[in-house]
Design a protein that fits this description.
By secondary structure, this protein is an alpha+beta fold. The protein is 49% helix and 8% strand.
Length: 452
């Protein structure tokens, strides 16, 4: 195997739960709780229902289980369906470096494998940390978005690595799993361009499923390409150009999972700081008095959620939660953005659309120069009377440098579960999730994840 594959496989095979710092374990639990909340909140979404309908046609021994219902299916389809639910609300965690994405998109896949194979809570947490470390190491090295490729590259590699650990693969088998996963799954970024479809929230579910499938193949003895990254027509040559993965954490050192950011609002991550600014400015101005709203932000935010014409006329939920004009208009008018903020009626609301078209968004080069260390945004509201109100922000609540508390994480889950779980069942579930590292079987914990 080439050097990159071998480095990853050696890490997967050698890391133990005892190697993990207490802070890493705690952050893994927080990401698990956050992801379960997102899974329940997204359970009734159309993409999740489609995935469950397809999953109902599959079976395996041992069986995979679907979060929220406990229905049995194949391990790969449970991985897919779980991730569709987690991802739908766009409220799960985000990692931002020179590459970016949602590492918790791997969570549902890893839980499907862990439950099916009778793994302990510690086994599951270790696999989660490994998957996050592989994802974040790639994102620290590769600007996939700028190259026109999608974050599924990070997801499939991390999911394969985490699944390999749960399956107890040898170092050689882990190398095969990673090589198969990365060679067979190179998604384009068309997923997130222009008017967005359901696939925006499903693309990484497909990647997570493929990572699990690669690990299952390797377990049965399937061998993978020997130079998936560095060889002729490999990832370096065809997609990324050469890169060097940083030292992989976990052996007594903090892991990449501690640098991921939780979301406060169910919307694209780069809208988080602007929304906090808007809610602050809203207290100082009446919406009917607003003449114009001018936004300055860094290139990634501008190009991702504030530049395409479709962002001023969203027609789908997926476009709306990636539209900074829509999100800001909604924030100013309603004083909140929640899971229920993206219905067809709200997207078509005349007041929201009128205010959207008084919003101008510009790229600020000095803010871009500070990215990703800072996520600077400045908003200036001009009133009809000529008054100017200004707000700025860089680290929204939930950012690794401005973290949500454990109580905040629980409160977020409670909000996402409202109407979908009884309060007593929810509290018992959260208690079990905080104690997952003492569970002999993670299946006993996940059995509490049930939607009424």
């Amino acid at each position: 195997m080439d050097r990159t594959t071998q480095k990853l496989a050696s890490y997967v095979a050698s890391l133990t739960f005892e190697d993990l710092p207490a802070t890493t374990v705690h952050q893994a639990k927080r990401r698990l709780i956050d992801s379960i909340g997102c899974a329940i909140g997204g359970y009734d979404s159309e993409p999740a229902r489609i995935a469950r309908a397809l999953a109902a046609e599959a079976s395996s021994t041992p069986a995979g289980r679907i979060l929220g219902s406990g229905a049995s299916t194949s391990i790969e389809m449970a991985a897919f369906a779980n991730t569709c639910a987690i991802r739908y609300l766009d409220c799960n965690d985000t990692f931002i470096s020179i590459g970016s994405g949602h590492p918790s998109d791997m969570m549902g896949a890893l839980l499907a494998v862990a439950e099916a194979r009778g793994c302990s809570g510690r086994d599951a947490l270790l696999a989660i940390v490994i998957a996050y470390e592989v994802f974040t190491a790639f994102a620290d090295a590769v600007p996939l978005r700028d190259l026109g490729w999608d974050q599924g590259v990070f997801v499939v590699a991390g999911a394969a690595a985490g699944a390999a650990k749960l399956l107890g693969l040898s170092e050689a088998q882990a190398a095969d799993a990673i090589a198969i996963a990365i060679t067979a799954n190179i998604p384009t970024r068309q997923t997130r361009a222009g008017e967005l479809a359901m696939w925006k929230g499903v693309a990484t579910a497909a990647a997570a499923r493929s990572g699990v499938f690669a690990a299952l193949l390797a377990e049965k003895g399937m061998t993978g390409p020997t130079a998936a990254f560095e060889g002729k027509n490999g990832l370096w040559e065809q997609v990324t150009r050469p890169f060097e993965l940083r030292a992989l954490g976990g052996k007594g050192t903090p892991g990449g999972i501690e640098r991921t950011n939780l979301k406060f609002f169910p919307s694209e991550y780069h809208s988080q700081a602007p929304l906090f600014i808007a809610l602050g400015l809203r207290e100082r101005v009446r919406v009917e008095d607003i003449e114009a709203i001018d936004v300055q932000t860094y290139w990634t935010a501008y190009s991702e959620i504030g530049s395409e014409p479709e962002k001023w006329s969203p027609r789908t939920r997926e476009t709306a939660d990636h539209s900074l004009p829509y999100l800001l208009a909604l924030g100013f008018i309603e004083g909140r953005v929640g899971a229920d903020s993206f219905s067809d009626e709200r997207i078509a609301d005349a007041r929201v659309n009128a205010l959207m078209h008084r919003i101008r968004i510009a790229h600020n080069e000095s803010y871009t120069a500070e990215f990703p260390g800072k996520l600077m945004t400045r908003i200036e509201v001009t009133t009809r009377g000529g008054e100017r109100l200004v707000g700025e922000a860089s680290y929204p609540k939930g950012h690794a440098k401005n973290p949500m508390s454990d109580a905040d994480v629980e409160a977020k889950l409670a909000g996402l579960c409202a109407g979908l779980m009884e309060e007593g069942a929810r509290k018992a579930m959260v208690e079990a999730l905080w104690a997952v590292d003492s569970a002999a079987s993670v299946a006993d914990v996940l059995a509490r994840v049930r939607v009424v």
